[in-house]
Design goal:
Order of helices and strands: HEHHEHHEEEEHEEEEH
GO molecular function: dioxygenase activity
Number of domains: 1
Cofactor: Fe(2+)
Strand order of the largest sheet: 1-8-5-10-3-2
Shape: globular
Helix content: 25-40%
Keywords: Dioxygenase, Oxidoreductase
Radius of gyration: 17 Å
Pfam families: PhyH (PF05721)
Number of helices: 7
CATH superfamily: q2cbj1_9rhob like domain
Protein name: Phytanoyl-CoA dioxygenase family protein
C-alpha cells in the first residue's frame, strides 16, 4: 500500500495553532486516511498480541491495570510501525502546534483498552517525564472509529495552567482529586467520539482521562510522544522520572540536550 500521506504536509491554520496554544489540546479530522488506519490497525495489533504478557483477568487488576494494555517503543520492534512513528506529517503537526523548530521522539506507546476495560483516571503525562520544558505533545491515534462507549480521551481544556495535582501519578487518588479540582475551577471538559483518521494532540501538562470501554471490542490506540528537538533533561523529581530517564533517554545527562539513539529527530 502507499504510505505517501505519512510524509505529506498537513497545513495547520492559525486558528488551529491558537486553539492548541490556549487549550493545550486539539482534535484534527482526516489526518490519515481509512486505508492507512486499517493497515496499522492490523500491523500494530499483531505486534501487541505478540508482545503482550498481561494475562491477569480484568477483575483481578487495580484501576490502572484495568485501564489498558500498554506496549512501548514499537518503532524499534517493527519496521512497518517505525514508518508511522517517524511520519513527517504527524511530526510537522506536533512541531507546528508547539511552535518549535523541530521535534524528536520521546517514545511511542500502544494503548489497548480491552472490552469492558475500566476508566483511565485523570492525570497529566508529564508527571512521569524528566523534561525541562512543557514543549511536549502526544499524538493519540485511534485505530478504529471510537464512539463514546469505547472510551475516547476527555480533555480538561486549558487545565495546564494549574499546578495542583501535578504531583499525582495516575490512579484512584488522581481520579478523585482532579475530578473535584478541575470542576471547581470550571474548566471546560471535552469528551467527543473520534472518526477514523481523526487524531488528537495534547501537551504534557494538560489533565485528561478516558472513560471505560463499554463495548465488546478492543479500543485500539497508538500514541507517539514528541518533544522539542532541543529538549533538556532535568533532574528527576520522582522515582517515575528516574525510571523514564533510564528507560527512554539512556545516556542523556542532566542539564544537557537529550540526544540519544532512542530519541531521533523526526523533523
Amino acid at each position: 500500500m502507499s504510505f505517501e500521506i505519512l510524509n505529506t504536509s498537513y497545513p495547520l491554520s492559525e486558528e488551529q495553532i491558537s486553539f492548541y496554544q490556549k487549550n493545550r489540546f486539539i482534535k484534527i479530522k482526516q489526518v490519515l486516511n481509512q486505508n492507512v488506519i486499517a493497515y496499522y490497525n492490523r500491523v500494530i495489533t499483531e505486534k501487541v498480541n505478540d508482545l503482550n504478557t498481561n494475562n491477569t483477568p480484568l477483575d483481578q487488576r487495580d484501576t490502572y491495570g484495568k485501564a489498558f494494555l500498554q506496549l512501548f517503543n514499537l518503532w524499534r520492534e517493527d519496521e512497518r510501525i517505525k514508518t508511522l512513528v517517524m511520519s513527517k506529517r504527524l511530526a510537522q503537526i506536533a512541531a507546528g502546534l508547539m511552535q518549535v523548530e523541530g521535534v524528536r521522539i520521546y517514545h511511542d506507546q500502544a494503548l489497548y483498552k480491552e472490552a469492558n476495560g475500566g476508566i483511565t483516571p485523570w492525570h497529566a503525562d508529564q508527571y512521569y517525564w524528566p523534561l525541562a520544558s512543557d514543549k511536549t505533545v502526544t499524538a493519540w491515534i485511534p485505530l478504529q472509529e471510537t464512539p463514546l462507549q469505547m472510551g475516547p480521551l476527555e480533555f480538561s481544556a486549558g487545565s495546564h495552567i494549574i499546578r495542583e495535582g501535578r504531583d499525582l501519578k495516575i490512579g484512584d487518588e488522581s481520579e478523585a482529586f482532579l475530578n473535584k479540582k478541575l470542576r471547581v475551577n470550571d474548566f471546560k471538559h471535552v469528551r467527543e467520539p473520534f472518526d477514523v483518521g481523526e487524531i488528537s494532540f495534547h501537551s504534557g501538562w494538560i489533565f485528561h482521562r478516558a472513560g471505560a470501554n463499554q463495548t465488546t471490542d478492543m479500543r485500539k490506540v497508538m500514541t507517539i510522544i514528541y518533544m522539542d528537538k532541543n529538549m533538556i533533561l532535568k533532574e528527576p523529581e520522582n522515582e517515575n522520572q528516574l525510571v523514564d530517564w533510564e528507560t527512554w533517554c539512556p545516556g542523556a545527562k542532566v542539564g544537557q540536550m537529550i540526544d540519544t539513539p532512542l530519541n531521533p529527530v523526526v523533523v
